[in-house]
Design a protein that fits this description.
This protein is of the alpha/beta class and 179 residues long. Helices cover 46% and strands 11% of the residues. It has a four-stranded parallel β-sheet with strand order 1-2-3-4, sandwiched between helices.
Length: 179
């Protein structure tokens, strides 16, 4: 295609493992894939008319941290693969999405391309498909009762992708269709 108007980066995983390149699976799926794809498509995004990059993060980013020593020595955001470490890795990967969006906005300044990160809400998805049986027994009933369905959960993503007039807010974090 000669131009690219919209890139929505939306992937989420909580579970153990490593990517083919040896990175922590959560870090690789939730952040590195977004980062790489965006970088590979960046020139095409800047060349077209008004274009947008939308990075789906999560409110959990507030509990995230990035320790560059751990990242360097373990190729991951955490040092192990326990359930608690996987949750921490998820939070930290989502923080990476927010920080990447902020820096991307700086680099896109002066172009017709903009970018946004967002919290879509707590949505009933298959993000926990790799949870153990006892974890699923606890979480599935809660999800069915209290989590958003996919259509409701897509609203902030669609807002960031389609809403006219939000270009001056490039780099900002949205939740419930607002900054």
């Amino acid at each position: 295609e000669p131009r690219l108007d919209l890139l929505i980066n939306n992937a989420g995983l909580i579970g153990p493992g490593r990517t083919a390149d040896g990175f922590g699976m959560i870090f690789g799926v939730n952040h590195l894939g977004h980062f790489l794809l965006t970088c590979l498509l960046l020139e095409r995004l800047k060349e077209g008319g008004a274009s947008r990059v939308v990075n789906v993060s999560a409110l959990a980013h507030r509990r995230g941290t990035v320790d560059f020593g751990i990242l360097s020595s373990h190729k991951d955001l955490v040092t192990g693969q326990s359930t608690l470490q996987n949750i921490q890795a998820y939070c930290s990967s989502k923080l990476c999405n927010v920080l990447f969006t902020r820096e991307l906005a700086n680099r896109l300044e002066g172009t017709n391309a903009t970018c946004f990160s967002l919290h879509p809400g707590v949505i009933q998805t298959e993000i926990g498909r790799h949870l153990s049986l006892w974890q699923k027994i606890v979480t599935i009933p809660i999800a069915k009762l209290f989590f958003l369905d996919a259509e409701a959960g897509a609203q902030t993503t669609l807002h960031c992708a389609l809403q006219e007039g939000i270009e001056p807010l490039s780099g900002q974090y949205f939740s419930c269709c607002a900054v």
